[in-house]
Amino acid sequence: MKANPEINKDLSFEDFKTEVLNDYNLAVTSRECSLLGRREVLTGKAKFGIFGDGKEVPQLAMAKAFKNGDFRSGYYRDQTFMMAIGALNIEQFFAGLYGNTDLKEEPMSAGRQMGGHFATQSLDENGNWNNLLEQKNSSADISPTAGQMPRLLGLAQASKIYRQVTGIDTTNFSNKGHEVAWGTIGNASTSEGLFFETINAAGVLQVPMVMSVWDDEYGISVHAKHQTTKENISEILKGFQRENDQKGFEILRVMGWDYPALIETYQKASNVAREEHVPVLIHVQELTQPQGHSTSGSHERYKNEARLSWEAEYDCNVKFREWIIANGIATDDDLTALEKTIKKQVRDGKKAAWTAFSQPLKNEQNELIALLETVATASSNKVFIEKLKNDLAEISEPIRKDILSTARKALRYVVHETSETKDQLTSWINNYIDVVQPKYSSHLYSQSEKSALNIKEVKPTYDDSSENVDARLVIRDNFDAIFSKYPEALIFGEDAGHIGDVNQGLEGMQEKYGELRVSDVGIREATILGQGIGMALRGLRPIAEIQYLDYILYALQIMSDDLATLQYRTKGRQKAPLIIRTRGHRLEGIWHSGSQMGGVIHLIRGIHVLVPRNMTKAAGFYNTLLESDEPALIVECLNGYRLKEKMPTNIGEFKTPLGVVETIQEGNDITLVSYGSTLRVIEQAAKELLEVGISAEIIDVQSLLPFDLNHDIVKSVAKTNRLMVIDEDVPGGASAFILNEVLNTQNAYKYLDSKPETLTAKAHRPAYGTDGDYFSKPSVEDVFEAVYNLMHETNPHEFPKLR
Fold this sequence. Notes:
- One of its GO terms (biological process) is branched-chain amino acid catabolic process.
- The chain is α/β, with parallel strands linked by helices.
- The protein is built from 26 helices and 22 strands.
- α4 crosses α11, α11 (332-377) runs parallel beside α13 and α13 (400-413) packs antiparallel against α14.
- The radius of gyration is 30 Å and the shape is globular.
- The model has no long low-confidence stretch (mean pLDDT 95).
């Protein structure tokens, strides 16, 4: 079913006919999959369907220009393209529709994504890179419209880095930067800000990117007149067109039903992007959507008779068929016979996919039915268990919910009984969950040997010559060591290049390592993240710098929906070990308050969140992560760059472990838990508490995700019998997360003699200035009084009420 990836101008007419008919075969096969797929949803076998009908012919043209090593970052309607590059067959199409959890049957996501979301496998089963130059690659799709755009930018930029930066081992990743990143998007989604941000950034960076806009004039039910100025995206992007003396885009327009013009257009786009490293926008117009947006509704509700009639006439497959007959390539009878054969192939493929999906479930169903018969026979509640068994047996197309739910309900009827069959049922349920749950829950984080959790701690070392220096010099010299050790490492962000970042943590690095490895970028946080994701997907080790923690909100959607889910939604077959560098904590003012941690840690599960209290700890995290294969967010303390720290003698080699807390002061009366800059406030308060006879143990969390893997905090609480979590985030933010981990995961409640307390910032952002910080976030006096009041409740005689 795979299309010829390149056009050969020396083809004989017979070979040309064969290639054209192969393309038509693919177009019809894809259409039949869409049509039958919709019926599978409407009959209840599949949950939801969103298909690529109406876009078949332009995707065939795109596939012909797509070469080994290239990457796609696309739209969830590119099924024909995936079939054409040999990455999707009929059975796999339907396996995705049914949600088959077997990666061999459904290699896109093992059933974790709905149909229409595609990917290829960049990694083997052990998490090691495949040779990406020997395959055609697709980065894993996401549903949020235009969310694929920032990643596309990074996929294209990787080719620029591989072409122009020397010293990188390009094995498996690049052939002198000749790879093109191909993007696809629906016309309505070009209204999203991420689209415009990416287009602008690609024009500035001049990267080999080809962006296809599939234009069928609608976004769900909303016409283009409500979506796009002038109802035409290429018209309003005319200002991006490159000229002789100005860099920009090559902008091309083509009708989506014109087979020869599409092939010519995509070959031209490929040559411009591949050879010149100039981005290209292809506006593919006059496309149709024969079944409407999705299975959730009918397009007859919002398209009038004239539009529906036009769509029937200008359907790209219909026009392709007419062109084939008009050019003597095949007759109507020939094509009719071919179409009949294809229909049968699709039906047969659908049946095979359904059997592969349903048979294991029926086997599990039958296994439980047999067990329940045995359990019922030995139970005094036989009649109730037999009803459950019979109800399960009547389900002709069971799912795992039906099976496990029945087993768990049956267990309730024998809970008071003692029998071998009860033990068998209990064991069956536990084993079933152990086997099945990972099918839906594995690979949120790396499960390879390069997991960050496997990187052992290496402590910083010092000798008599170690000087106290501004902490920024520790981080700067560590970056120097990183760029020297890892040619594939690079950093980019606002002010990161020429001036060496706003706090001089990259001082002199651009001059030493060049503008491509230490780069300034525009004010565009989402595509800064996208650059990092795309380059990491192609084997580079990017560090994306977001100037302040507050600004990460611009990029949070990309972090949450794309980067954080990547390992999960590909079941470990793609990775993007991007490091996100930012700074925050205790800065003054509403927009630089650094108090979004509660939201961040709940929205980006799948990304490690690290909160070092000083630059030595931060540097150690960078060193750890660069030996791992996972993404992480590192929040440096903004008010720590000018504080003094000793310069380690093993710069670039020491490593801070993830998920390990540190006790920075021992005590007996209460355990105080915090992170980041707030620890300095707590340390001062602890000194003052000691003056009144209160001994506080202070624990630095260091790592919010993962959190205290060794359960060291509960060991402290067992000693002090009191707990207070102190946080600069809003009430119920990160403090609630920490408290839940300590009380419910570590079961510290068993050791408490007093109510566990949290001390947080106020619910609002901090007002400007030092007084704004003092009255908005925990101060030394706040910590002192909160701890003192807790001790007063315990021993009012020794600690009389303060106020």
